[in-house]
Amino acid sequence: MRRLLAALALLIAVPAWAEGERAGDFDYYVLALSWTPSWCALEGDARGSAQCDAGQGYGFTLHGLWPQYESGWPSYCPTSIRPATRGQTGAMVDIMGSGGLAWHQWKKHGTCTGLDAAQYFDLSRLAYGRIARPDVIRQLDRDVMLPAQVIEDAFLEANPALDPDGVTVTCQAGRVQEVRICLTRDLEPRDCGADVRRDCQLDDALLSPMR
To answer: CA torsion angle for 49, 51, 56, 60 (degrees, to 10)?
Structure first.
């Protein structure tokens, strides 16, 4: 009985997600912005990604616009809508870094919005454009170690409409990884659900400059 109760407690504590849920059935969006230098150091360089080439100038790129439940999230929703075309995914390179990422985001998350690919990418671009990426971070010229909270504070200062409970910073392998911002279905700022609102607690997170 103790083992059963422990297993149930673990299941309750883990955020729920689903695959194959009904398209258009969700509560809000998470706009995920990835700090390219961190992604390149952790994954992109090993892949030989052109996004990581010197002089590309990618900073906070759009990782994705993710439909979210109040707890958990849908993914890979079945849809009769025509898949995204190569032209549509290629047109997102300027803010996403690669057409491959755009295709993956459409397949995993876009299909759950109830929108077609063109509408999903247009909405993603609109959401990305509404969030100011702090210039002070883009102007960084060397590696620095800092509290991850500093990144959140910079976004809050650059975007007065945002609230601390609507912004979270994630870390991976000791690096600042992403800034995630919660938005209503109309792209207005809102508080994140508890499963999203999990800030990186590092006081010495590594932040590398743009290339």
So the answer is: -150
Q: What is the pTM of this model?
A: 0.89
Q: Does the pLDDT of residue 4 top 70, yes or no? A: no
DSSP of 44-110, one letter per residue?
IHHHT-GGGSTT----EEEEEEEEE-SSSB--S----SPPPPHHHHHTTHHHHS-HHHHHHHHHHTG
| CB neighbour list of residue 90: distance below 8 Å, 6 or more residues apart | 99, 102
Per the DSSP assignment, residues forming a β-bridge with 179 are 33, 169
Q: State pLDDT tens for residues 57-77.
A: 999 999 999 999 999 999 999
Burial bucket for residue 7 (CB in 10 Å: 0-12, 13-18, 19+) = exposed
Report yes or no: 59 and 33 within 8 Å, Cβ to Cβ.
Answer: no
CB 209 within 8 A of CB 141: yes
Residue 105 has pLDDT above 80, yes or no: yes
Q: What angle do CA 60, 65, 67 make, to 5 degrees?
A: 150
Q: What is the distance between the alpha carbons of residues 198 and 168, in angstroms, rounded to a whole number?
A: 6
Q: What is the pLDDT averaged over residues 18-25?
A: 79
Q: Is 183 helix (H, G, I), strand (E, B) or coil?
A: strand
